[in-house]
Specification:
It is built from 15 helices and eleven strands. The protein is of the alpha+beta class and 426 residues long. The chain has two domains: 134 residues; 242 residues, no CATH class. A hairpin with a 3-residue loop joins strand 6 and strand 7.
Length: 426
């Protein structure tokens, strides 16, 4: 990850900070301590995998995902990704490290993987642990021995809860379930273009929505290759013209041939993140589970909406588990642990403020929402090798998944997991 890009984005997106947060000494007093008594209502928030908050699966999840701010507020139970940054020291030293080893060892010695057999929960649990594993192994320093100790235990559990390929492919289509629940409108109301919507036909092969790929690599290259994602998800860009599928295809082709092309009023762009899982043979498999959906509607100015997978909502089965987000922790393309730097002005960044940090018009045009804000096309601030221009085309989930899986197989985090996977007895 390029440090200059990280620093610029930190300045732009994190409230105008001008001092590099890595220059400050972490305040480890802000990290969670699982040995402290927990109020009943706080414990119940962590009853994700079982109604009993002290169930081994809940204890592992809570230990790895819980963070506590300097004012005592607890976070993490409703977060899709662990609140861990590249320079986080939480889990790597002191009490949090010792307790992590203890919780993981108890899970392994009691064979707690046998306590829950529901494929959906096993899939999510593997996904949650895999994210922490990649954080540990993406860099060797600091605390190399502590990283290795945690990674070794996590690799064992990741393998023990793995599903077969058939079980992974049989997981529910949570996006379809969410769309069918009618929690959100399927289209933008004409008189309220700012309203959040969740299109029901985005994955239908003949709809106006077209998946957009790129020759030479993943369409969402920076999302795929950067922390915290590191190739554990397949990101795919979808485009929809209000004039139908043929015009959407024409728009994608125009991006290759007409650099001055501007957006059609009413056009939609969606970035969909779909979960990869590791099957019981150690192979990467694209699951049906959608993790996030980021939608922009141009009217002509951009309206931003982000949906994120929520475990509790997913497990209750009434919807697909996608909830609308108003603010998020800044993990993508960022550094500086906000829980270990109490002088930062806020923990979260709001939507759309966080979105416009990257998806802005450049140069500004009289018609807001020009094609420069589609990074897959413009590559503004995120150039391809040798500043190459992308060649865009219509693609499929299957083809994009193969591109991402190939990238992940060549990444050092996957090599680390494979080495430990082989050492782990079934």
């Amino acid at each position: 990850m390029k440090k200059n890009i990280l620093f610029v984005l930190m300045v732009i997106l994190l409230f105008g900070c001008t001092n590099d947060p890595r220059s400050r000494q972490p305040d480890n007093t802000a990290t969670a301590r699982v040995d402290q008594p927990k109020p009943a209502e706080e414990k119940s928030a962590w009853s994700v995998y079982d109604p009993d908050p002290d169930h081994p699966w809940n204890r592992v999840f809570r230990q790895l995902y819980q963070r506590t701010s300097v004012n005592g507020e607890v976070y993490g139970a409703d977060e899709l990704d662990p609140l861990l940054w590249f320079d986080t020291t939480h889990l790597l030293n002191g009490t949090s490290h010792r307790q992590s080893l203890q919780v993981l060892d108890e899970f392994l010695t009691t064979h707690a993987e046998n306590l829950i057999h529901e494929p959906l929960k096993r899939a999510m649990f593997q996904r949650d642990l895999w994210a922490v594993f990649d954080w540990l192994t993406a860099q060797p320093e600091p605390y190399p021995s502590q990283r290795q100790a945690l990674a070794t235990r996590l690799a064992q559990i990741i393998r023990k809860v793995a599903l077969s390929k058939e079980e992974i492919l049989s997981l529910p289509d949570n996006y379809a379930l969410e769309a069918a629940s009618n929690t959100f409108p399927a289209k933008v109301p004409a008189d309220h273009p700012e309203i959040a919507f969740l299109p029901s036909d985005i994955f239908q092969p003949n709809s106006a929505w077209v998946a957009m790929g790129r020759e030479g690599g993943p369409i969402a290259q920076t999302h795929t290759e950067s922390f915290p994602f590191l190739g554990r998800s397949v990101f795919l860009v979808f485009v929809r013209s209000p004039d139908g599928r043929i015009e959407t295809l024409n728009f994608i082709n125009a991006l290759n041939t007409d650099p001055s092309h501007t957006l059609t009023n009413g056009l939609d762009v969606a970035l969909v993140r779909r979960m990869l899982l590791i099957d019981d043979q150690g192979e990467l498999v694209l699951s049906p589970l959608v993790e996030t959906v980021q939608i922009r509607h141009f009217n002509p100015a951009q309206n931003f909406h982000e949906f994120e997978l929520n475990r509790a909502h997913l497990f209750d089965g009434r919807t697909g588990g996608l909830i609308l987000k108003a603010d998020i922790f800044l993990l993508f393309m960022s550094h500086g642990d906000v829980f270990e730097m109490p002088d930062l002005p806020a923990l979260k960044a709001t939507i759309p403020h966080i979105c416009t940090g990257c998806h802005f018009e450049h140069p500004p045009l009289p018609n807001p929402g020009n094609t420069q804000s589609i990074i897959s096309y413009s590559r503004y601030n995120f150039p391809l090798p040798e500043n190459g221009r992308p060649s865009l085309f219509a693609t499929t989930w299957s083809d994009e998944a193969q591109t991402v899986i190939q990238w992940k197989r060549n990444h050092e985090t996957w090599g680390s997991l494979q080495a430990l996977w082989i050492q782990t007895s079934p």
